[in-house]
Amino acid sequence: MSFNTFGHLFRVTTFGESHGVAIGCVVDGCPPNLRFTLDEVQAALDRRRPGQSRFTTQRREPDQVKVLSGTLEHPEGGLVTTGTPIALLIENVDQRSKDYADIAGAYRPGHADFTYDIKYGIRDHRGGGRSSARETATRVAAGAVAAKVLPGVTVRGAVVRIGEIEIDRSRWDWDEVPNNPFFCPDPQTVPLWEAYLDGIRKAGSSVGAVVEVVAENVPPGLGAPLYAKLDADLASALMGINAAKGVEIGEGFNAARLTGEENADEMRLGNEGKPHFLANHAGGILGGISTGAPIVARFAVKPTSSILTPRLTVDRAGQETEIFTKGRHDPCVGIRAVPVGEAMVWCVLADHLLRHRGQVGASPHWPFAASSTA
Amino acid sequence: MSFNTFGHLFRVTTFGESHGVAIGCVVDGCPPNLRFTLDEVQAALDRRRPGQSRFTTQRREPDQVKVLSGTLEHPEGGLVTTGTPIALLIENVDQRSKDYADIAGAYRPGHADFTYDIKYGIRDHRGGGRSSARETATRVAAGAVAAKVLPGVTVRGAVVRIGEIEIDRSRWDWDEVPNNPFFCPDPQTVPLWEAYLDGIRKAGSSVGAVVEVVAENVPPGLGAPLYAKLDADLASALMGINAAKGVEIGEGFNAARLTGEENADEMRLGNEGKPHFLANHAGGILGGISTGAPIVARFAVKPTSSILTPRLTVDRAGQETEIFTKGRHDPCVGIRAVPVGEAMVWCVLADHLLRHRGQVGASPHWPFAASSTA
Amino acid sequence: MSFNTFGHLFRVTTFGESHGVAIGCVVDGCPPNLRFTLDEVQAALDRRRPGQSRFTTQRREPDQVKVLSGTLEHPEGGLVTTGTPIALLIENVDQRSKDYADIAGAYRPGHADFTYDIKYGIRDHRGGGRSSARETATRVAAGAVAAKVLPGVTVRGAVVRIGEIEIDRSRWDWDEVPNNPFFCPDPQTVPLWEAYLDGIRKAGSSVGAVVEVVAENVPPGLGAPLYAKLDADLASALMGINAAKGVEIGEGFNAARLTGEENADEMRLGNEGKPHFLANHAGGILGGISTGAPIVARFAVKPTSSILTPRLTVDRAGQETEIFTKGRHDPCVGIRAVPVGEAMVWCVLADHLLRHRGQVGASPHWPFAASSTA
Amino acid sequence: MSFNTFGHLFRVTTFGESHGVAIGCVVDGCPPNLRFTLDEVQAALDRRRPGQSRFTTQRREPDQVKVLSGTLEHPEGGLVTTGTPIALLIENVDQRSKDYADIAGAYRPGHADFTYDIKYGIRDHRGGGRSSARETATRVAAGAVAAKVLPGVTVRGAVVRIGEIEIDRSRWDWDEVPNNPFFCPDPQTVPLWEAYLDGIRKAGSSVGAVVEVVAENVPPGLGAPLYAKLDADLASALMGINAAKGVEIGEGFNAARLTGEENADEMRLGNEGKPHFLANHAGGILGGISTGAPIVARFAVKPTSSILTPRLTVDRAGQETEIFTKGRHDPCVGIRAVPVGEAMVWCVLADHLLRHRGQVGASPHWPFAASSTA
């Protein structure tokens, strides 16, 4: 991930402060002739508030995304990409003054207030509850476009742990995920999380979460050994999500507990010229390259700072002080990170598909004839 | 991380197969007028075999690193950088034939054999026990140069878990790390790991490990919000290490278990115009920017595949078969990853120091006068 | 220049079709705490129609630039950069339908119609006279921000040749440039160009031009030998301007006619710790690095295709046909390229200043003490 | 062109001082399964001394190129690329001491001596006649690999002007180019250049030259509008050649003298689904994208400084002084730039082919059916 841009062929450049005039991104390098609709993009944004069936009237996201460039209207409806940069913009309907009079601002522990100041000597201190929502919107919009580059691939995310309560993987059902407010794939865990988060909210506290994203039907061969590893790019994309503190692929940190026999995924013949893996401890990536098995990535999101209890801190002028924030707060920001995680995985996969196609052209097919030299 | 090159100002481009003619890297963007010696670089390479006091005769790494460019000899001894690209080369003293007659090669489960083939349709199948050793050498060499960009900063790594056996953090002593074969900071865990690994080795098995790297005295302000986050770059650098399957910063995945009160690091006045953090759950990075507190990163290394038991697999020609490798094997490759992790952290920090200095020039100093506008 | 983004630390990403919803750019990596006003940016845009004294009422550019992010309002007025990405947007006040029904469109010779189609299989065929005006606007806006990174530096452009009529350099007067419609520095050439272009316009023809851009007070040391040469970056920036077909630095192509004695710039002691160059055939750059002497770059702009005479061409369906465009046309598009050339030079210099500062930190000062080793 | 690396998918990173231990480059992103031989690469290097028929005994370049990685031996002979980074190394057979005792070194006018010092405060002052030869070697080697990415494409260079003597284009014959010491395509100009350069050499002077490189059978559609223009990348690649001061495409600076009717290239139906261009003023590129017509690029090389006459200069310690160099010198360095120009064009085209293939996949075919939407 580099600068404000990530990706090398399918590139996404984001801009804007969530509370500023507008927020947006530029997607360039998108292949031409891909069709999508604004409704699809808007639906991806709306998914950031789960729990509503897509067949009922959807409460629309107050921030609407606009497409400024890079597409034409398709005669059959919707948009089609031209191959030129696609700019997506989300305007902020309630602007605030840009004045930065809050000179003696205290730094909120666990937030980037201090680090912005120590880096630049100036910071835009305006924040707010809706910020995090809008901030994720552009990435989710870019992910909706990236998804069009990989027809046949599915990318789905779910929360697998909130605080100390982990789901039961044996009951994993993707169809449950849209039916509860937690992107939870295990129906029996939902009431546990509801009760737990009610308590957290009443106490004015917050808690962390772990999100798992699974990509299926990914073509094998994406990513490059030595350089440009797919897992390295997934790691930076997911660690770049606000409040993320850890990333793992497949067994992840648990792989450190396993022996070689337990961890290696044996292979047998499968369908369609691909091996069939008897297990997937690798999480779909070996040597930095996709194997064709599902790519499984997880990231941990820290809790936001508690805000109803005064916290010890310092301020811009070097004084020790306390700080607490009034008002409504999000007891578990990890939940809204699910669509962002999916979007980042879409963007990284789209980029790697184009890079693989660029370097290699037509993919080789396994098995190779016994006498083939390549 | 991009392609074969990582970093944006302090850039490292690696090349070479460990079993080929030579392996090396090019470091460009290194500031001029930094002094280092080949002995320092060689010592970093030799550290990959811990357990020998640096005051005794060190057994030198059989592969010697050469500096091909980018330096001059300093009148007082050693080398000094000129600001032009520094090429480091390690020649392979025992070359092998490049013939790739092994057409029907079976794919070793858990290795990149299959993925190389499915990506390129051709692969260099020659591998070997010494490969992983040499592969790490160029990165460790680059890290030795990177360290010169950050005088005053220390970067140290240690193994914190092997298999199910974790160290006792309350007994952490950095001085112990060079005194045992495991980079272990807890003297009481050493015999436990020795016994455990003896059993693993006899069983012809292998096991994973977790490595922790700590960087101290890192200037605050490195990394950029929104884009170019320091933790995102650390994540891709560490996930890019062979056999790495997970990366975390500070509390990492454990942050998901904590509440806001438990996780936020409160601040008081400290020395030298920096706040003093009362805790460091953040691992030294907030909002993608260094805080000045120690940067704490951990990565998990998976076990190599067991090799004395035949494993089910397929081969290049599409046949189901079995594979097992004869000979000596490494029961825990995670151990030798410690210097590589340190080197990657050095390289990422060097890059971010130059990027910060480039964008901002002279760093702002906290505290800021009460009436200061910037 | 790479993708839709140019620069490495001071990076500009542009988006938008001139006839689409909006056009804009994102400037990221801009140092914090730089002040500028929207009026300054708008004035740069308005300069694209020269001939009006800045002390009279300026006819404002119909397309207004907005700043969407990356700044705060300064208490003393105007904006100040925060170091975060600055998005600049120019909305198109008269949108057109996105329908692309013109399937059998003929390709205009000398335009990119055919090449867009052959690359992407789809193209946005809507164009128009105002397109080129708006297209340049975002780059000029980015250049206005870049100028703030280099206080003390001046960058000025002028037209030096239209068709076969070249200025007389001995009469070069920068103060004349804003006083005529041609950015001409030689008052005696102005009536010659006026007469010539009147004839060209009446004939329904068009003609090419050469633009020269001079940057003064550029710090020496910008650019890097071997890699990242300042002149290579200037070349790609200027060749990337629409209709540009040639770029030269200093003597340029004329250097091929000179002998070594004629071309080398001898040096004597100057002021302020810089040498004084007795000539400037080098155009301010040696070995890819700025010398401190004025940087002189020239680029040639081709004429737009004649449009009142039918031209032989083919169309999308593979038929031979003719094409001619009705309406008003620009007899010399090279003239409006002057502010674009200036803006590109500002952006490249800003990028190189940050890169130099990043790699080197505080610049060395010449002369160096006789016994100094660095 | 960026840093020490140019290209985005087919990437070349160079390193080494010509007088140092070794010089080399790393080519990464090369497609797999391309065959080449060391003899082909060596032959490209040897071409830097033209005038010898390839059927006679070739005097081999004293510096031999080695391939360190990224290939395997093909059963039928030669090497085949594996898709992994290819490192090419040329060792310097006569090393020199790295001591930099020449503290009071005078700066040679027209050379990069002063600019290196003012940028870094330290420079490697060792140079020499053979330097320029070896410096070009790595780029020529990289170009030989790049050529394999574009089978069917030809890239050929020639000198078109030395000093004031230009060739007669009506007598252009590519078969003449290898038959004379000047890469001259016009047999009648050869004796004129011989006589002229004899005089130049005797006078201890030097003169500049213009080199033209033509690429034929380039697929249309390479390069991208708005971003990643092919001509912009060619411009930076060619301007990056040592001593280059100008670059032009097609008509180049002469386009500024033409009217629209004279400059536009009309089209008729051609063979193989491509239009036939009735002229090629555009030099094969429109809107930054290749048209399929021959790509014609020219670059101007300045003369090296005269060296037998003392030149006024200053030195490192700030003293005014004189400098002159003894010994043999090259009267026209532009001549040896021809293979370098070809190599740079190969590299840029290879990179753009991969980028185009990556973004678009299978290229669209013209003509498009009348009712086709894409």
From TrEMBL, chains A, B, C, D:
Q: Does the keyword Acetylation apply?
A: no
**Recorded metabolic or biological pathway in which this protein acts:** Metabolic intermediate biosynthesis; chorismate biosynthesis; chorismate from D-erythrose 4-phosphate and phosphoenolpyruvate: step 7/7
Q: Where does FMN bind?
A: R130, S131, S132, N242, A243, G287, K302, P303, T304, S305, S306, R328
Q: Return the EC number.
A: 4.2.3.5
Binding positions for NADP(+) per the UniProt entry: R48, R54
- Please provide one cellular component term from the Gene Ontology annotations of this protein: cytosol
The reaction(s) catalysed by this protein are: 5-O-(1-carboxyvinyl)-3-phosphoshikimate = chorismate + phosphate
Question: Keyword set for this entry?
Answer: Amino-acid biosynthesis, Aromatic amino acid biosynthesis, FAD, Flavoprotein, FMN, Lyase, NADP
What is this protein's function? This reaction introduces a second double bond into the aromatic ring system.
Q: Which family does it belong to?
A: Belongs to the chorismate synthase family.
Q: How does it assemble?
A: Homotetramer.
Name of protein: Chorismate synthase
Report which gene this protein is encoded by: aroC
